[in-house]
Structure formats: structure tokens, C-alpha cells
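Researcher: Going back to the complex we discussed earlier. I've cleaned up the inputs and rechecked each line, so this should be the final set. Can you rerun the prediction on the complete assembly and write out the structure?
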Amino acid sequence: MNRLLFSLLLLLPISGSGHGIEIDSSALRPLAPITVTFAPIESTVRPVPAPKPPVTTSAGSPKHAPLDRRQHRSREGWERIIPTHVKVQYAGGMGFLSFGAGWDYGRKCQWETDLYLGFLPRSKAGKFYLTATLKQNHIPWDIACGKRFSFTPFYYGLYINTIFGEKFWVREPERYPRKYYTFSTKVHSFLFIGQRFSLHTNRNRTSRLKGITFYYELSTCDLYLISAATNRSLGGRDIVGLSAGVKLQLF
Amino acid sequence: MKPIARIASYLPLLAGIAGCDHFEYHPYDTDIKGDCNINARNIARIEAACANKRTIRFAMISDTQRRYDETELAVEAINARNDIDFVIHGGDLTDFGLKKEFMWQRDILNRLHVPYVCLLGNHDCQGTGEEVFGKIFGPADFAFTASDIRFVCLNTNAMEYDYSHPVPDFGFIENELHAFASPAVRTIFAMHVRPYDFQFNNNVAKAFEYYVLAFPNPLFCLFGHDHRWIEEDIFNDGMIYYGCPNIAKRTYILYTVTPDGYSHEQIAF
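Model: Rerun complete. Updated structure for the full complex:
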């Protein structure tokens, strides 16, 4: 089932409307420089220049739209502390479900920092646990597929997760001699790689929702890596876990 | 590069998924895939296979945490012979108490041709480890009868419970003592941590020994935790405690119990 889902995820952009297509330049135009567009933008050829033309991504030929059409223009002042997106993630070693908010930044929104609050239900961990996660993403490329879709072939990052509960500690309790246990059961760091598929919905300027991104990731954590690094009998399949999520772009 | 070619170049990423369809909620979740309740099932096998034997032979391995390669070698070495009735694992299957560590160890130990039982080690108690151990292997205190010998296997990792739970559980020990019945006429004890180790509840070390000696014909006690071969009369009362080397030493201990006595041998692999 999972395999099918993700195969479809990959195939969607391939079977989409193609690349380098002619773009109706009047279709999408940001209102003012302050707005952040997270959407396919118009081609670099502008028959009617806007009063303050937005910064466009570099493109080779004016006949072709740029492949990576992400664009980011900073919001000003205190507006910047408002999260640019919210996310929901399923699994990934950070909880059964995790709810997050985050900020994207960089010239092409290629950096994303998220904060999640997640939980483990009794059915999955014997007891209800809360978790918190700080996640850093780097999304080097994005491939536009038609006006409304884009595909991220590869992105990566790391996250640090903590679980709340008296069973878990960063350093062993005082009843033990120092360094009796030399690892943390409470805080774990993860590395991940993933792919994304985005639908851009900001045609309607009155809507708060600018886009929906579906993502999945393959991740592993520090203690698994230590185990695999010292044993030939443990391989990638043993230590890698799967996760999936949705990102809602607000700005 | 054409966009489609570019996408195609990332196909190997999906190939990785083809072999991995496991959503993991947390390294310490207790959502276990695969075989569970192993000790009870293997005890039934041991009791059935040894019921009519006069001499039994068992191997002890211990402290296999984060040594999957050596654990595999031990399984191969034990499988290579046909004179062993069962295997006792002295605890510390895991280093961090992670669910996956228990599952990795389980999957290796399940390749043993003979039945095995696992004791709870102090590392196995980290995080949700004890709950995972309980699901995969069973209760931390258990007992079984092989031939005419009662094996009493005990959780002695007192420090991990900080007095929130009786360790060792004298209630369990006393029940075993009262329920002691034929065909058992002799007793062997197995535990992860020996008396007077830092982990042990040393306030009751002598009381523990008192109970050990109260059992019918106690032969000897087995333990792990110290990562080396130990043969010691801890209480100077003639009861020998045998410490099993950790698996990194590439050694298992072979015990042969005959109607008249017993012998032990260190087997390197």
C-alpha cells in the first residue's frame, strides 16, 4: 500500500503537463512586492511591467519558464516572526502524529526550520507521551510541473526530538555512578532524505492557503547509526524508517 | 539535463522505499512487529524435549548488546552441534533498550535450532525496554523444568527500579519454593546481576542467598553483566556463582548436568 502511494507520488509530475511550457504571463502575478509568492510565477517576459517588478529567478532563454520557480521576498519587520507554514507529520520517530509550524527562508525558500509538538498514544507506547521536535530542512531544487504543480526530487535535513516522561533522561539519575550509562534516552537526533509534491492554490488571493505540499521521508536516528556502523549484519533496511506529512503554505 | 531525466536519476530513492515500508513512531515506542511471547513458547519446547532425559546440556550466552555480528556467530556455532538441548541468554540483549534492538536480537536468536530463553538485563530496562522485553520475551521472572531440574530465572536489576518494584521479587521466589514439585528435584538459578554488584539490592543479598539455599538441591547460580568468566563462591557457603562472558569474547559456556553432578566448559567460536 505504502509502495503504491509513493510510486504514484513520483509518477504524478512525470505524467503532468510537462516542462518548459509556455506560460500565460497574465495568469499569476503577485500584488505587491511585500507578498511572498510560493507559486509558479510568470515568465521573465513581461509585456506590461508592473510598477515595482518582483525579483524573478534567473532563466536562460526568455522563451522558457524557469524550471525552479520558487521565489521568496521577505516580509518586513515583525511580520517575519509569523510562521510561513504549518505541517502535520505521521511517524518518523518523532511521534505518532506531530503538528508543527515553521519558517521558510533563503532566496528560493530553500531553507525551512520547523517546530513540532507530537504525541505517542497508549496503543503505540503503552502510555501517552508528548514529544517535541526541532527540524531543519534544506530543499535545494524544485521542479515546476505546469502552472499549479511542482515536484521536489530530493531534500534532506536533520531533526532533534525529545520525549517527555520520567523514564527518559539526558544524563542518568543521581543514584548511578557517573557515566554508568553514556547515552541519552530522552533526546535523539535524526537524519533524513525525502521527496515532495506541491499543489499551488494561490490563484485566489483572498485565500489564506497558498499551497499544499505532500512529503515523505526516510530517516534514521543516532543510536541506530551507531549500531549499524559497528555491525556488518545490520544494513540500511534495518535502521531506516518511513514518515509522511502535509505542509500548508500560509505566506 | 532534461527534467524527466533529472527525476529519473532520483529513482533509486524510491527503490529504498521498496524494501522499507515501516513507519516508526518513536525509537522507544512499543509497537512490535513480528514474533512475541518467545520465552513461554520455548519453555514448552524445552520441557517437552527434556522430559525423559537423564542428562541435559545447555549453552549460556550473555550481554549481546550491540554485537549483532558476534551474536550471529554464536548462533551458527551452537547450531553446528547437535548435543545442546537449549540456550539461556543472561540478559542485556540491548544497549539502549530500543525496540529495534530487541527485534534485531530476536531475529538472530530465532535462528537457533534449539529453544532459548532470555533474561532481563539492566540495559534492557532503559526507556520502555522492560515493556518491550515483556511483549517479545515475557515476564522478567520465570521458571521452567528441564529433566529433573527447576530453572528459576530472576530479575535482579534492582537499581533500574529505584525501589518502585520489588527486585529481586521475593514474592515470586517464595511462590516458586512452595510450588516446587515433581519431576523437579534439583534447582539452578539464573540472573543477570549477581549479589553484591552495584545493581543488586545488596540490603537483601543475604536474604536472597537464604532463599537460594532453601530450594531443593540447589546446584549453582548463573549470571551475566560482568562481561567476563567468573567462578566464585560469593557467600563462602559452597554455592558457586558462574559469570558468563559477554558475546564480544566469542565464548559460550556449555553446562552438562548429569544425575550425579554437573560440568561446565568454555567454548570459543
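Model: Worth noting: Chain B is about 30% helix and 20% strand.
Researcher: Good, that matches what I expected from the previous run.
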